[in-house]
Amino acid sequence: MLKTRYTIAYVALMTLVVVASNFLVQFPLNAEVAGINLADILTWGAFSYPIAFLITDLTNRQFGPQAARKVVFAGFVVGVTLSFFTSVPRIAIASGSAYLAGQLLDIAVFNRLRRQAWWRAPLVGSLIGSALDTVMFFSLSFAAFFVLLGPNDPFALEAAPILGVFATEAPRWISWAIGDFAVKMIVGLVMLLPYGALMNVLRPMQAARAS
């Protein structure tokens, strides 16, 4: 009964993060750092989305990988449904595929490292999962090679200085991916604070310890 209640709570939190991220991705971050116009490469959704990894890791810590996968699949269903209503099919496919692959990789890495230093499993798992998520989403969404998923976006494929400040040029989506992953790394580090604070509250159940 306790596991069911907590799992429902984790599913609700994951759903909230997915819904919020789908909404916030519409709003560019209007700021400038070191000459980089962040509005050109980031939206507010980049800051909310990495919280999904915290939810996955807390579920994994408390109940093990099987429960964490259930939470991830619930978020996948919500995310894909929203994406097909709010964006083109290619973006929806990329978003769902990247989310699922990144979260499942996070679960596998976390489970392998769960008996090491308390911070290692959530940090390494979320960073590796985020890296895969970023590569998959931006490649499937915008790389010319994946045109079979839908029409290419000419603006995304235009050559421009990387991050708008470097001499080297690349398709615009490369800068978007770099900015997105940079935010995920920063948020991943910040998420260690709530994870550490909740460690003594959300203790692993016996099944999770045996995983």
Protein architecture, described:
The protein has 211 residues and is mainly alpha-helical. The chain has one domain: Orthogonal Bundle (Arp2/3 complex 21 kDa subunit ARPC3), CATH 1.10.1760. Helix content is 68%, strand content 5%. The protein has 10 helices and 4 strands; from the N terminus they run H-E-E-H-H-H-H-H-H-E-E-H-H-H. The chain has helices spanning 2-24, 45-48, 51-63, 65-86, 89-113, 120-142, 154-157, 172-190, 192-198, 206-209; strands spanning 32-33, 36-37, 159-161, 169-171. The radius of gyration is 18 Å and the shape is globular. The model has no long low-confidence stretch (mean pLDDT 93).
Q: Using the 3D structure, state the CATH architecture.
A: Orthogonal Bundle
Give the beta-strand count. Answer: 4
Uncertain stretches of 5 or more adjacent residues: none
Neighbour order of strands in the largest sheet: 1-2
